[in-house]
Amino acid sequence: MSQVERTMDQRGSAYSLFQTAITLEGQVRARTEELTALMRSLERSNQALTAAKEEAEQANRSKTRFLTAASHDLLQPLNAARLSLSALADMPVGPEARGIVGQVERGLQTIEDLIKTLLDISKLDAGLIQPVVRPVRVADVLESLEASFGPLAARKGLRLSVRGGQAWVASDLVLLQRILQNLVSNAIRYTAAGGVLVAARKRGAEIRIDVVDSGSGIPEGEQELIFEEFHRGGRESVDGEIALGLGLAIVRRSAQALGHHLSLDSRVGHGSRFSLHLTPCAPEPPRPAPSLVPPTSLTGARIALIENDKAALEALARLFHGWDANAFAARDHLSLVRLLGTTWSPDVVVADYHLDGGACGLDTVAWLRSVHGHDIPAVITTADHSAEVEARVRAARCELVHKPLKPAQLRALLAHLLSRG
């Protein structure tokens, strides 16, 4: 009987183990099915997020292309207007007329700044601006700020103090300058009394650049909103200057593109402190100083000019004649060929990049160089800021100048090219 009972117990235990194994197998199968369903759900969610990300990036690229095209069309008449104003300013006019010219010039400058800033924001959003990070000497950047904004602060009765050591940081020089210029410009604009301090300090393992003002301060509820486009908040410019509400939007996006942390500390009635946190690096090896050629006069210079916009063409021709240069102006390649023939060789060529009918000013430059057998100095003007256009102009050994043209800059460049030639 004992032997039979032991046998029955063993069979019962085996059956219990068998039942337990079946139960565990069912639980494992159910859990596996749950995990599989969850993984498929996550996979679908990832695919949806990827599609949404691609759609957003495509929308940003489309917005950038639209703004680029729109800005090109907007900058063309703006370019003609600024050139005409410059020619008018060179004429003998009375003080009242000169004051009106200055007002119109400031208005055009505001429009140009708005267009370019919107385009910059769009490019940053689309990831089209790739920072060129290299060693940057902080003192050089701060010295340029002092030179640029010192007179403006003095006119408003403010103190602009700049304190920077000999630290080097890893950054993009152009973007870093733009960030600090916007911060200092805002600080001066919204400060009625006292001053603005720009200081670079070593804080632990980083270099921190502070822009501190004694202005009205920013309420805590607006400290995040001020970085949004076109947000001006409750603050008013103390000098009545129109604020576009885009400066801090550019600051944040540029800082993010560079990987620099940006912080804000502000108290109403006590002022604000914007801080940019940078990583120090080793100094850049010294470069040999470039040899500068002194500019010469444009008197008697022979300038071949091709520009498809009639108003801009007439304004440039008037400008060149006002500089005592001989300008031969045409709106297309064939007209310029008939005007010049094959014997008259220009000293310099000023050509618009985009001409009517899909033509390009670079082709006219290449033709002139081929006919006369030497590299005639050439300046290509365009409102297109794309890298492709810049690469083509550089490859053709031409100078690139973006519209709207600044007459003083153009005159200095032409004088330099003529003296070098």
UniProtKB/TrEMBL annotation:
<keyword id="KW-0808">Transferase</keyword>
<keyword id="KW-0418">Kinase</keyword>
<keyword id="KW-0597">Phosphoprotein</keyword>
<dbReference type="InterPro" id="IPR036890">
    <property type="entry name" value="HATPase_C_sf"/>
</dbReference>
<dbReference type="InterPro" id="IPR003594">
    <property type="entry name" value="HATPase_dom"/>
</dbReference>
<dbReference type="Pfam" id="PF00512">
    <property type="entry name" value="HisKA"/>
</dbReference>
<dbReference type="GO" id="GO:0000155">
    <property type="term" value="F:phosphorelay sensor kinase activity"/>
</dbReference>
<dbReference type="InterPro" id="IPR004358">
    <property type="entry name" value="Sig_transdc_His_kin-like_C"/>
</dbReference>
<protein>
    <recommendedName>
        <fullName>histidine kinase</fullName>
        <ecNumber>2.7.13.3</ecNumber>
    </recommendedName>
</protein>
<dbReference type="GO" id="GO:0009927">
    <property type="term" value="F:histidine phosphotransfer kinase activity"/>
</dbReference>
<dbReference type="GO" id="GO:0005886">
    <property type="term" value="C:plasma membrane"/>
</dbReference>
<feature type="domain" description="Response regulatory">
    <location>
        <begin position="302"/>
        <end position="418"/>
    </location>
</feature>
<feature type="coiled-coil region">
    <location>
        <begin position="32"/>
        <end position="62"/>
    </location>
</feature>
<feature type="domain" description="Histidine kinase">
    <location>
        <begin position="69"/>
        <end position="282"/>
    </location>
</feature>
<dbReference type="Pfam" id="PF00072">
    <property type="entry name" value="Response_reg"/>
</dbReference>
<dbReference type="InterPro" id="IPR005467">
    <property type="entry name" value="His_kinase_dom"/>
</dbReference>
<dbReference type="InterPro" id="IPR036097">
    <property type="entry name" value="HisK_dim/P_sf"/>
</dbReference>
<feature type="modified residue" description="4-aspartylphosphate">
    <location>
        <position position="352"/>
    </location>
</feature>
<dbReference type="InterPro" id="IPR001789">
    <property type="entry name" value="Sig_transdc_resp-reg_receiver"/>
</dbReference>
<dbReference type="InterPro" id="IPR003661">
    <property type="entry name" value="HisK_dim/P_dom"/>
</dbReference>
<keyword id="KW-0175">Coiled coil</keyword>
<dbReference type="InterPro" id="IPR011006">
    <property type="entry name" value="CheY-like_superfamily"/>
</dbReference>
<dbReference type="Pfam" id="PF02518">
    <property type="entry name" value="HATPase_c"/>
</dbReference>
